[in-house]
Write a structure and sequence with these properties.
With 200 residues, this protein is α+β, with helices and mostly antiparallel strands. The chain has helices at 2-21, 26-92, 96-114, 120-140; strands at residues 143-146, 158-164, 173-178, 180-183, 186-189, 191-196. Strands 1-4-5 form a three-stranded antiparallel β-sheet. A three-stranded mixed β-sheet has the order 2-6-3, with no helix packed on it. The chain starts with a helix and ends with a strand.
């Protein structure tokens, strides 16, 4: 490394000596230096162009990512609003099907009122038809009657109004005052019953 440095210094001294002796004119040496300088500047310009191109590419990539982010945010907001609307509609119209199924019962009751009050058989027939329609509509919507009479008292399904002597075994339901109902196997209303206290 030192030897190379010495050689360079010797060459420079030799050139200076030639200039001094008139072998090489100063203008020629300056021209050689001037010709070398543009090459350095040209190399610097190429590096600057490469950096600018890389910057422009990254800026374009950033713009694309930002656009994609904004679009994603807009889609999520639309989904949130749609979800809220669906929940609101579900709450408002949850019993739409059930409510529609009850309309025919009202129709039957109105027809019963049009029957001559003297015709008890026709009135009874109308009531029976209405009750059948009512039971059918309940069953269609997952509502079942709780049949209690003759079954062992179940505190989860029955509400005891009292006990009474009977020929049935103790804790057997012997009378039903109101019918109980379940909705999809979950208790909707317990049956109100009288329970046997055993033989008197």
């Amino acid at each position: 490394m030192s030897a190379n440095k010495d050689e360079v210094q010797q060459e420079e001294q030799l050139e200076d000596q030639k200039v001094h002796e008139g072998v090489i004119e100063p203008e020629a040496k300056e021209q050689e230096t001037a010709e070398a300088e543009p090459q350095v500047e040209a190399g610097g310009d190429d590096a600057e162009v490469d950096l600018q191109a890389a910057f422009d590419a990254k800026q374009e990539e950033l713009d694309q990512l930002q656009d994609k982010y904004l679009r994603t945010c807009a889609e999520l907001e639309n989904l949130r609003k749609r979800g809220q609307r669906d929940v609101t509609d579900a709450r408002k119209f949850a019993i739409e099907k059930f409510a529609g199924s009850l309309l025919s019962i009202g129709d039957n009751l109105e027809r019963a009122l049009e029957v001559d009050a003297q015709d008890a058989a026709a009135i009874r027939e109308g009531i029976e038809l209405t009750l059948k329609t009512w039971a059918d509509r309940l069953e269609e919507n997952g509502i079942q009657r709780v049949e209690a009479v003759g079954k062992t008292f179940d505190p989860h399904m029955h509400e005891a109004l009292g006990k009474m002597p009977s020929d049935e075994d103790e804790d057997t339901v012997v009378m039903q005052h109101t019918v109980g109902y379940t909705l999809n196997e979950r208790l909707l209303r317990p049956a109100q019953v009288m329970v046997s206290s055993g033989k008197a």
